[in-house]
Amino acid sequence: MKKIIGVGLTFAPFLAFAQLTAVNAFVTQIGVIVGILTPIAFALGLLYFFWGLAQFILASGDPEKATEGKNRMIWGVVALFVMSTVFGLIAFIQSELGITEKVILENKAPVVPIIK
Taking the domains of the chain in order of start, what are their residue ranges? Predict the structure, then answer.
């Protein structure tokens, strides 16, 4: 029984690499979808901020609605800040690791830097 497990574990990397092209295609498709949804998410965050701004301006005299508008503006700014920070971090990591759209679309693994 131990020999069967040992032989199976010996060939496990080959089985894993056989599925690598399907995984690369899947990850590429996810990247395309995220690339499409990113500007939509930014637009929704900006729209939420302006909705709060309009609510704040139109609340003239009603402190409860003015507070609700302020809260929407604050959360809109927080959402925009978080999205832009994550977007910037991803761009920084991609540039440092040498991952470009050409590498992603050709399903090639990027060259990973090593420390000597």
Answer: 2-105
